[in-house]
What does this fold into?
Amino acid sequence: MKVERRNLAELTTLAVGGPAEVWTVETPEDLVRATSAPYRVLGNGSNLLVADGGVPERVIRLGGVFARGVLGRPRPGAAVHLTPWIGAGALLPGLVQEAARLGLSGLEPLLGIPASVGGAVRMNAGTRFGEIADVLEAVELFHAGRFQVLDPGELGFGYRTSRLPAGAIVTRVRLRLAPAPAAAIEARMAEVDAARKGQPKRKSAGCAFKNPPGDAAGRLIDAAGFKGSRVGAAMVSQEHGNFIVNTGGARAEDVWKLVKRIQEELGLELEWEIWGELH
Ligand code: FAD
Ligand code: EPU
It folds into this structure.
């Protein structure tokens, strides 16, 4: 296990945020030790706005056995493929590509989401083509000092949300995929990729706000004229209104001011999670 003081700006895709004590756990014993004081779990840091002052809690990252994940080869002729247990610290983009290579369908809707498996479960990551809850067979949690396996139906998945018990850490999952012709998988991936073409490549934490029922936050922000609005080095993307980008050295307080301006005018619900104190 590694314990080090890190700036969370280095561990988040928005590249914003102050220091924390980061515990990278590699074994079940590490996890028991790491959870002996107040903690937060960090996945790939792609849905977080972390305060400039950092966080006082331990920040747990899943490495070692918790970051390993392979999908396994489908049996010839089988209609369904249940994967082996996959570590929650494994990254989704690698699994999406591996599935395509193996001729396994089900992960195509998640193409382009820079999540860890655990973060994707927590947020029920998805696109309009589907979400991770659609392909979960079983979820292992570490909660209140012990490991337990849950049926995904017990996790209360909704649009970008789950009802994981407070403090629960997703440690492993099994996925239910379906063998399919490579051409069909590639065609679905191309469709998802095309739907993401308008999203910026710059540093961000994905969409800042949830879409309100029947509308799109990006459209509303665009129509209200926010594109290109800046506070310091934080800017509402010119490409897609629901992305706030870090143009270089942005501070959490700058990002937060932009978020508040948009919320005051449009009343949108934040999709990001906030860590630490913002003003
Ligand atoms: P983090 O940001 O590290 O954490 C998010 C939350 O999950 C925190 O509460 C954290 O404590 C919790 N968490 C993390 N790991 C675990 C674990 N093992 N056990 C329990 N809790 C855990 N999202 C979409 O849904 N669809 C998209 O199309 C999409 N596109 C994106 C594009 C870009 C360029 C970026 C930067 C982000 C995008 N996102 C998208 C947002 C983000 O990728 C998702 O919300 C993702 O699920 C976050 O996963 P993470 O591992 O990065 O979690
Ligand atoms: N639009 C505008 N102006 C903009 C942006 C969008 O008018 O600046 C319009 C588009 O023309 C379209 C509508 O708004 O008519 C929706 O836009 P888009 O197709 O880009 O999809 P979205 O609803 O903004 C959602 C998810 C994304 C996901 C894509 C692809 C949310 C909040 N966002 O975006 O998820 O990648 O669909 O399916 O649900 C995320 O959650 O972080 C995320 C990036």
